[in-house]
């Protein structure tokens, strides 16, 4: 009976990422979620794919949102001005709640060319002044569920009967699904979550529309914002493939994004700059 009542997801909109060749040290960059479309992506603000050398993202501030950084390749060094330091490698994820006042650096290690995907996840107005925090989710600590012809690795949320270790302040699912050629999987997430996906490799077919997406393909999914049950997206792999799927509950508040800050009004943005210049974000991250 459940198979007849569960909300069936499909592809809503899809596109391929286009890249800018920036030169040294920010070698290449592309928008998976373009910030100009942020109302469509709520609660997500943007998602960037970057290849960079050391010196690209040195000491800088943030306020009013969260980041979820997935390391595709290379070694990513995290340094913050509260004494935090860590190195993440391929498959690792870092969650940051910028909250009130984050100041950190995200650098390639030594001479590495680091390849990352960074998602900006909004905070509701009630949580924008929360304490800054960081959490590393190493690839070996994310639970993995096998299915016929593949596996799903869960970084955040309750998915496939397991719970991801990420401690997001807002509801969030993040899963990495790997397929062998010909495998099919039904991905189940709450029907009221706005969701998107990004194909890391291979060629996959999604939903009743059987939309085919290849590497660098991104898409938003249909959803039922008033629903309270689960939904499923049917995925079939044409080749060996890997896809990331994210979902979250829309916040539905005014959003103003400017530089490293995400607030509800322009006056709050100006106050963030004043606070930063006044030293309220603390010393540099070194």
Automatic annotation (TrEMBL):
Keywords: Iron, Metal-binding
Protein name: Pirin family protein
Required cofactor names: Fe cation
InterPro entries named among the record's database cross-references: Pirin (IPR012093), Pirin_C_dom (IPR008778), Pirin_N_dom (IPR003829), RmlC-like_jellyroll (IPR014710), RmlC_Cupin_sf (IPR011051)
Binding-site positions, Fe cation: 60, 62, 104, 106
Domain Pirin N-terminal as annotated: residue spans: 50-121
Gene3D superfamilies xref list: Jelly Rolls
Origin species: Heyndrickxia camelliae
Single Gene Ontology MF annotation: metal ion binding
Cofactor note: Binds 1 Fe cation per subunit.
Record-annotated Pirin C-terminal domain positions: 176-282
């Amino acid at each position: 009976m459940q198979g007849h009542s569960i909300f069936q997801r499909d592809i809503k909109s899809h596109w391929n990422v286009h890249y800018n060749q920036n030169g040294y040290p920010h070698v290449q960059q592309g928008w998976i979620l373009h910030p100009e479309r942020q109302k469509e992506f709520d609660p997500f603000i943007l998602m960037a794919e970057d290849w960079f050398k050391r010196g690209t993202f040195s000491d800088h501030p943030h306020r009013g949102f969260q980041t979820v950084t997935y390391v595709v390749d290379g070694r990513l060094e995290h340094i913050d001005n509260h004494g935090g330091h860590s190195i993440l490698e391929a498959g690792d994820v870092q969650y940051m709640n910028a909250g009130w006042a984050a100041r950190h650096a995200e650098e390639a290690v030594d001479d590495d060319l680091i390849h990352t995907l960074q998602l900006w996840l909004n905070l509701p107005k009630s949580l924008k002044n929360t304490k800054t925090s960081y959490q590393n989710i190493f690839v070996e600590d994310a639970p993995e569920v096998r299915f016929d012809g593949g596996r799903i690795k869960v970084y955040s949320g309750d998915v496939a009967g397991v719970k991801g270790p990420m401690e997001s302040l807002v509801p969030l699912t993040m899963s990495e699904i790997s397929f062998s050629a010909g495998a099919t999987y039904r991905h189940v997430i709450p029907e009221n979550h706005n969701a998107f996906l990004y194909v890391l490799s291979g060629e996959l077919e999604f939903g009743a529309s059987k939309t085919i997406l290849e590497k660098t393909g991104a898409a938003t999914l249909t959803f039922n914002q008033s629903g309270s049950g689960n939904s499923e997206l049917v995925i079939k792999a044409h080749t060996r493939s890997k896809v990331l799927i994210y979902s979250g509950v829309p916040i539905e508040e005014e959003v103003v994004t400017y530089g490293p800050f995400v607030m509800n009004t322009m006056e709050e943005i100006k106050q963030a700059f004043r606070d930063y210049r006044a030293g309220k974000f603390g010393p540099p991250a070194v």
